[in-house]
Amino acid sequence: MIGITPNTGQKFLSILSLIVLGAVLISADFPEIKISKKTQDSRPNIVFLIADDWSYPHAGIYGDPTVRTPTFDRLAREGALFENAYCAAPSCSPSRASILLGRYPHQNECAGNLWSVFAKTFPNWVSLLQESGYHTGMSRKGWGPGD
Fold it and tell me: Residue 25: what pLDDT?
């Protein structure tokens, strides 16, 4: 069994909460998309959420008695809930790059540092889903004035 240290658990939930926030924002920003019945029945829906500054176990599904997260809890019950995780890097940008590119931070050039720019030579799984006919959307992390 894979264990969680306080740092990896906190980092995982930080990433997971950004994922949840992204899904909420994505669902509000995009019009209805019509998909053929055949496509709809043959491929799974994928909702990938990352969130910063959401510490373990601050979600109802993880047993927090105070924080109420009914939508996240429902998504977790109906899909996959990660309970063990390892963080590829001790900071957010390299960790996100590793998740999206499937590579260690030291392999990601600028994205392996505190940059949010990915080299076009590295395919990411979101682009691969787009090429396979999935509709993808995104939100971003705002952090300063005007964001």
Answer: 52
Q: Where are the domains of the chain?
A: 1-28+38-87, 88-147
Tokens of 91: 């900071």
Q: What is the pLDDT of residues 51-69, one digit of tens each?
A: 777 777 888 999 999 989 9
Distances (CA, A) of 20 to 70, 107, 123: 12, 27, 23
- Neighbouring CB atoms inside 10 A of 104's CB total 13
Please give the model's pTM, rounded to 2 decimal places: 0.57
Angle at 140 between CA 120 and CA 125, to 5 degrees: 40
How many C-beta atoms surround the C-beta of residue 11 within 10 A?
Answer: 24
